[in-house]
Structures are given as structure tokens and as C-alpha cells.
Specification:
The complex is a heterodimer of chains A (462) and B (307).
Chain A lengths: L1 H15 L12 H22 L11 E7 L6 H20 L8 E7 L3 H14 L3 E5 L4 H14 L3 E2 L17 E2 L5 H15 L5 E5 L4 H17 L4 E6 L9 H10 L3 E4 L3 H11 L4 H4 L1 E4 L16 E3 L9 H4 L2 H14 L5 H23 L7 H8 L3 E3 L4 E4 L5 E2 L2 E7 L8 E8 L12 H7 L16
Parallel strand pairs in A: 1-2, 1-3, 3-4, 4-5, 6-7, 6-8, 8-9, 9-10
Antiparallel strand pairs in A: 10-14, 11-12, 12-13, 14-15
Chain B lengths: L1 H18 L3 H23 L8 H16 L5 H23 L4 H21 L1 H4 L5 E2 L12 H28 L1 H11 L1 H6 L4 H27 L1 E2 L6 H14 L4 H21 L3 H15 L3 H13 L1
Antiparallel strand pairs in B: 1-2
Helix pairs in contact in B: 2-7, 2-10, 2-11, 2-12, 3-4, 3-5, 3-10, 4-10, 7-8, 8-10, 11-12, 12-13, 12-14
The chains are: A alpha/beta (462), B mainly alpha (307).
Chain lengths: 462, 307
């Protein structure tokens, strides 16, 4: 190791500077020595750290930085993701890891906010062992990390990152999202609603008061107006994220008497809303759409006929998922280990890890079995088509993902104690996405009522 | 002796990122928060606790983002303009806030800052809501730098500013204007009888402290590359007061020592466990219980004993 030799020489040189301080200046020798030794040590460490690790050699372990909420209210969405990552990494390692290299994950808590997340990202990216980041859940964190990923040239897979702004400029080389985004996710609900209730006149929206809630309202409204121009939005309510009490909002909803109530509340907020809205008759007086309703199916008794979905194709009981033995095995293992069946954030995380593994396999096939560099890995992700637990995750050349969208309504079956999704439809991923480089909201405005005619109908997916 | 210690500490700070490159970001952020905490500490001299200084921190950071959006693309210009912006917000808020004392001052600061926070989060079309606004990498005196080079420039610039502005604030605190702050704390009426306008003394202190918070916010905005409303949330303000108290309000270095301590503690805690909040909290309780003068107070006391 030449670098170690150099660093030792540098350190010795610095230490020898000590004689400069031997003159008695009233400075205690011990302290100066401590300082100089500290500096020498720091510099030596720096020399070692700055020496790039030899690429292409297979490392003893592959590090993944996985960013999710593990504390605070958003952990209701983040922990199922972390659980799924634990399970999936266990499964990958049980089958010999990726290209024979075992995977180990470092979890970063997004509840620290953008500053902490960026600091952790930099720290993890500085270690050559961590070749890929799976980041992140929150859109604000994704947007904050995206420029960093480009600058540090670390392939970064957004396992959730719903916001349509993330890859809008089309310039990303290292940021990938093997998922849909807010545009196809919420257009799907508008189309499904109009197929199921063609005579809808009035709609009320109750979304959390942050970017995700406002984006969803904007997209859902724009899609409805484009497909059925006479629809009227009678109320737009944005309760604070994490509020325990929705009685005021529910009163507004009952007086507005809308045909449809749309909501993308999630986590404990959604559970609280459902528990408070059900006794007050919201579910009987209006057709309710809970965009993230699948996450609470196993927790609160949702009545029949509520339109719910999974913001993608990640429904573990979909016909495609049931047909895959590994998905069934994953769901059962998840239930055995965590006491609940996986919810769609779990599936999104598991799929993101499958996506990373597929990229490694593809990169190694391409370069003849050598351990891929970060660049080769990013190349393998671009334009890829990966078979996930629940369908296909296709990556466009602008790095944005195409996945199918599953929407349905809650139904009771004898097979499960909780309601499941029935009367399903599965929209093709590319059918609800604007072309690369197109402004999504401008694209939605161009949609015509005929657009929905060519798409599959509710109940067609069984 | 003090100068030697301080110089050695700054040198260690300057060299740490060479040893561990990821630390550069943490240290930049710590210095940024140190500036803001110093602003809080200036007001603490007069016995005024502001639980709203994150407003100026955020105002300046948003200032950078808005100026960058408007096409200003020079580090120096952005820094100066945004700090002036922070100071201006401070002057406007200070005009009526410095008339209040004790809990009223603290609560009114909190209230005003939360109004600002709500505006940042709710003016969705202007500020981007909770997704915030991007801060691009600016040119440095006309030189367009890559991201890593810019971050190094930013770090060493912050370090230099820390020394320069630290000395300037030290001078200010040792000037009659600075000593008047302590006098406000002990006996405000006597000060008025001496012919010193308390209102003006406090307004000047308030504007200076807002400008310091603004400088911190601008640096943080550049370092993070994105400004989000959370910058102005009351927990961020509380964080600044905590840093000021933790470091010790006895002198200028206290704020920076407190910020470094808290940021490094945070970085260490999150790598260990999900319950990082618990570790940070317990450490703070220990420090506050056993070091009432703060970390800097401990150092200063040792020195006093050795004299």
C-alpha cells in the first residue's frame, strides 16, 4: 500500500514540526503536542481516505443506504418500507446476495429533515462500499437529494418519491424512480371514478396540507375537468398533517353534500379520518375515494364500495401478484414476521430492491462478470425493464418510471377478515404518462373525454 | 493562551474535512447555525429570549432562493443581499417587538415567526410549499465552480467569516452599546435616567442579531441546496436557543461550540439508532444539569482557575 506509506511520511514530517514549539513561550508542552499530533493524525487519515478504493474488485459486502421514516408520524408509511427492505435483503442474501456479494443496508431516518438527510447521504456516499442509495420516501427529501446524487454521481433509486417535479427536467443521469408519479397515480382515480359514476356533478377534496396533498388535488381536479368539464369542486380542505381531529372538516363535507369525496390522507391521519367520518355518514352520503386506502385496509373497518388503490401496481393480492410464487412467499413471510400483510409501501420498497439487484445483474452481464462501477450501474438502470413482485417496472430514457396503476373498490370476501380490493382495473403505465419532457399539467389539460374510452373498464382486471 | 487555543481550534476545524470529507457539510451547517445562535445569544445578554429567530434564518435563505430565481448568480452578492434582507425583516419586526420584555417578547417572536412559516408553507405557487425552493450553485467572483469545489469554498468562507464576524461581535459586545445590553437586563430604568435610549439599544441589537441569523440561513441554504419552510418552524428557533444556552452565553465562541457540539452529537446519534432523539435529549439534559454555564463556560472557568 503506497498510500499508507505516504501518509505515514506526511504524519512524521508534521510531527517533527514539534521542535518549532520547543521554545518556551509559556505554552504548556503537553497541549501543543496534543494539537500537533491531532493535526498529523487527521491529515494522515485524510490521505488514506482520499485514496480511491480499487474499483472492479468484488467487495466483501455491498452497502445500500436506505432512506425512510423510522420515527415520527410518517413512520406509519416508512416502517412498512423498512420492514420490507429487511425481509427482501434477507431473501436476496439467502440466495447468495448480488453476484455472490452479500447486501447490507444502512437505514437513514428521514424524520431528521432535509439537513440531516443530506449529511447522512454525503457520509454514506463517501464510503466506496455504498454504491447505491435507495432514497427516499418524502418528496421534499427526494428533491433535496437529487442534485446531490448528480453531483456525487451515485445511482439513487427513489423507492417512493411521488412528486412529478423530480425528473421533470429530463437531465438526471443518476436519479431513478422505478415507480409512477403523482400524475398517473391521480389521473387513474379520475378515470376510474368517471367510469364507475358517470353522472358525478360535485366533488369535495380533503388532502393533507403539504406539497403531496396540493399536487394530488391539482392533478385530480385537472383530470376531472378535462374528462368531464361540468364537474364542480365544491370544497377543498387541507387539514394540517398529523391532526388528530377532523370534525370541522367532516362538518364542512356533510353540509357541502358532494357526490364524491376525494382524499389522499395517509398513515394515522387517514385512520383518524375514517374513524371519525364513518359514524357521521360520509361513506353513505358520498362516494369516497381514498387514494392511499389500501394501507389501512387491515387496520380500520372500511365500508364496502370505497374506491381505493395502491399508487402503482403494488397490491399483493392482485391477479398478477397471486400468480407469482415469490410474491406469495414474500407476503406470507411478511405476515409471519411483522403480523400484517404487506401494504403497498412495503411492495414499493421490495420492488426497488429487486430493481437494484436487476441493475447489478444486467451491468455484470454487460461487462463480463466484473463488479460494476457506479457509472455502469446507472447505465444498466437507464431504459431497463425489470420484473418486480407485482408487475413490470420500466425505466424511460429520462429515468422516469412506468408502472401499471391498479384501482378498485373495497369488497368483503370470505377469504380474509379485512376488506380487499375488488372490481379492479389495471391501467398500463405508459397510457397515463405524458411523453418525456412534456409539462404534465399542460398535458392533462389537453386530454379529451374520448381519452378514457380506450382504457380498460372497472372489473376488467381479474 | 486564549488566542493559541482559538487558533488551534479553527485550524482543526479547517483540517477536519480533509480527514473525513462528509464532515465538511456537517461543519458548514454547524457554523451556519452557530451564526444564528450567536444572534440569539446577543439578545440573551439583554435577558430577552427570542423563540423566533429561525424566521430570519429562513427569510435570508428564501432570499437567496428568490434572488437566484431572479437571475442573481454571484455568491458574494447573494450573501450580502440576503443578509441585508434578513436584517430588514429584523428591523421591521424589531420596531415593535423590542417594546416587549420577558415572556411577551419570547411569545411574540414565536408568533411572528410562525406566521412567516405558515406563509412559506401555504403560498404554494410562490414558495413551492413544503417541497421548498432550489438554491443553485452560484458563481464565485465570476468563476463558475463545480459542486464539490463550491462546497469547499463555502466551508472555508464560512470558517473565515466565523473568525471575522466573531471578532466583530466581540468588539460590539465590549463596546458601550454592548454593555448597555447587560444593563437593560439588570436595571432598565437606570439606563434611561443615564440618557441612554433603551429602545434604540435594543433595536440595534435586534437588527444585528437578525443579520447574524440571516447570514447563518444564507450559508445553510447554499450548503443544503434547497430551502424548505421547516427552516422557519418553531422547533428550529428552539434549536437555536438551545445551541446558544448549550454553548454558553458568556462569549462569542460559545454559540459556535454549542452548534458544533449539537451537530456532531446529532450525526453520531443517527448512525447508532433510530432513537437518536433520545440520545440527543439525554445528553442535553446532562449538559444543562451539570454545566449550567454551557460548554464554553466550562472552558472559561478552567482558564480562570489556572490564572
Amino acid at each position: 500500500m503506497t498510500s499508507r506509506g505516504i501518509s505515514i511520511v506526511v504524519a512524521r514530517c508534521l510531527s517533527s514540526l514539534e521542535w518549532l514549539f520547543r521554545l518556551d513561550r509559556g505554552v504548556p508542552q503537553g497541549k501543543v503536542r496534543w494539537v500537533v499530533d491531532g493535526l498529523a493524525g487527521a491529515l494522515a487519515l485524510g490521505v488514506v481516505a482520499a485514496t480511491p478504493a480499487a474499483a472492479q474488485e468484488k467487495p466483501s459486502a455491498l452497502g445500500l443506504g436506505i432512506f425512510t421514516f423510522t420515527s415520527g408520524p410518517a413512520a406509519a408509511y416508512g416502517m412498512p418500507g423498512k420492514n420490507a427492505a429487511d425481509l427482501m435483503i434477507g431473501e436476496i442474501n439467502a440466495k447468495g446476495g448480488i453476484g455472490g456479494v452479500p447486501v447490507s443496508a444502512t437505514y437513514v431516518d428521514e424524520a431528521q429533515g432535509a439537513q440531516g438527510v443530506i449529511a447522512e447521504y454525503r457520509r454514506l456516499a463517501g464510503d466506496a462500499k455504498n454504491q447505491v442509495m435507495v432514497a427516499a420516501l418524502s418528496s421534499a427529501n427526494c428533491l433535496a437529494l437529487a442534485p446531490l446524487a448528480e453531483q456525487l454521481e451515485v445511482p439513487t433509486v427513489g423507492w417512493n418519491c411521488d412528486t412529478h417535479q423530480l425528473l421533470m427536467d429530463g437531465k438526471s443521469k443518476y436519479v431513478f424512480r422505478p415507480n409512477g408519479n403523482t400524475v398517473p397515480e391521480f389521473i387513474a382515480y379520475a378515470i376510474y371514478l368517471l367510469d364507475r359514476k358517470p353522472d358525478v356533478k360535485t366533488v369535495a377534496i380533503i388532502n393533507p396540507d403539504y406539497a403531496f396533498g396540493h399536487d394530488a388535488a391539482k392533478i385530480f381536479t385537472a383530470a376531472l375537468k378535462a374528462l368531464k368539464p361540468d364537474v364542480e369542486i365544491v370544497a377543498e380542505l387541507y387539514p394540517k398533517l398529523g391532526s388528530p381531529n377532523y370534525q370541522t372538516e367532516i362538518s364542512r363535507l356533510t353540509t357541502a353534500r358532494p357526490d364524491v369525496v376525494f382524499s389522499n390522507l395517509w398513515g394515522a391521519d387517514l385512520e383518524n379520518f375514517v374513524r371519525q367520518a364513518a359514524p357521521r355518514g360520509i361513506f353513505t352520503s358520498s362516494q369516497v375515494i381514498l387514494a392511499l386506502g389500501e394501507t389501512v385496509l387491515q387496520r380500520v373497518p372500511l365500508p364496502d364500495g370505497v374506491i381505493v388503490g395502491v399508487l402503482g401496481d403494488g397490491w399483493w393480492m392482485s391477479p398478477d401478484a397471486r400468480a407469482k410464487p415469490e410474491t406469495v412467499k414474500f407476503a406470507e413471510a411478511y405476515k409471519a414476521r411483522f403480523g400484517e400483510y404487506p401494504v403497498f409501501p412495503s411492495i414499493k420498497m421490495a420492488n426497488a430492491l429487486i430493481y437494484v439487484k436487476a441493475a447489478y445483474d444486467a451491468a455484470m452481464r454487460k461487462n463480463g462478470g466484473k463488479w460494476p462501477t457506479r457509472v455502469e450501474l446507472a447505465d444498466a438502470m437507464n431504459g431497463s425493464k425489470v420484473e418486480t413482485l407485482t408487475g413490470i417496472a420500466q425505466t424511460r430514457t429520462d429515468n422516469d418510471g412506468l408502472v401499471d396503476q391498479i384501482v378498485g373498490v373495497t369488497v368483503r370476501t370470505s377469504a380474509q377478515q379485512f376488506p380487499v380490493i375488488g372490481d379492479m382495473v389495471r391501467y398500463k403505465g405508459d397510457s397515463l404518462m405524458p411523453q418525456a419532457g412534456q409539462d404534465p399539467l399542460a398535458w392533462i389539460a389537453t386530454l379529451k373525454p374520448e381519452f378514457a374510452k380506450g382504457l380498460p373498464k372497472p372489473g376488467s382486471y381479474k | 493562551m486564549r488566542t493559541v487555543t482559538a487558533a488551534a481550534a479553527v485550524l482543526v476545524l479547517a483540517l477536519l474535512p480533509v480527514a473525513a470529507p462528509w464532515l465538511q457539510f456537517v461543519l458548514t451547517l454547524a457554523i451556519a447555525k452557530g451564526f444564528a445562535a450567536l444572534g440569539v445569544a446577543v439578545l440573551l445578554r439583554a435577558g430577552l429570549i427570542s423563540i423566533g429567530h429561525a424566521m430570519f434564518y429562513a427569510a435570508s435563505a428564501y432570499g437567496v432562493a428568490f434572488l437566484a430565481r431572479a437571475g442573481v448568480n454571484d455568491l458574494g452578492l447573494l450573501l450580502i443581499l440576503s443578509v441585508l434582507g434578513g436584517a430588514l425583516v429584523g428591523a421591521v419586526a424589531g420596531l415593535f417587538l423590542v417594546r416587549y420584555r420577558a415572556i411577551f417578547f419570547a411569545m411574540l417572536n414565536l408568533a411572528v415567526s410562525m406566521v412567516f412559516y405558515a406563509l412559506c408553507a401555504k403560498l404554494y405557487g410562490v414558495t413551492g410549499g413544503t417541497d421548498g425552493m432550489p438554491v443553485p450553485v452560484p458563481a464565485v467572483f465570476g468563476v463558475v465552480l463545480g459542486e464539490p469545489a463550491f462546497k469547499s469554498v463555502l466551508f472555508y468562507l464560512s470558517l473565515g467569516l466565523m473568525v471575522l464576524i466573531g471578532l466583530a461581535v466581540q468588539r460590539y459586545l465590549n463596546s458601550p452599546l454592548g454593555h448597555a445590553l447587560a444593563a437593560v437586563h439588570t436595571n432598565e430604568i437606570r439606563l434611561e435616567y443615564l440618557g441612554i435610549p433603551v429602545w434604540a439599544v435594543l433595536l440595534i441589537a435586534y437588527v444585528i442579531s437578525a443579520a447574524l441569523a440571516g447570514l447563518g440561513g444564507a450559508i445553510a441554504g447554499f450548503a443544503i441546496g434547497r430551502v424548505v419552510p421547516d427552516f422557519a418552524f418553531w422547533t428550529a428557533s428552539g434549536h437555536l436557543v438551545l445551541i446558544a444556552v448549550l454553548g454558553g452565553i458568556g462569549g462569542v465562541p460559545g454559540a459556535f461550540i454549542g452548534a458544533l457540539f449539537l451537530e456532531l452529537l446529532h450525526s453520531a446519534a443517527v448512525t447508532v439508532t433510530d432513537s437518536w432523539n433520545l440520545i440527543v435529549g439525554v445528553t442535553l439534559i446532562i449538559v444543562i444539569m451539570f454545566m449550567p454555564q454551557g460548554v464554553y463556560g466550562l472552558l472559561a472557568r478552567k482558564e480562570a482557575a489556572s490564572l
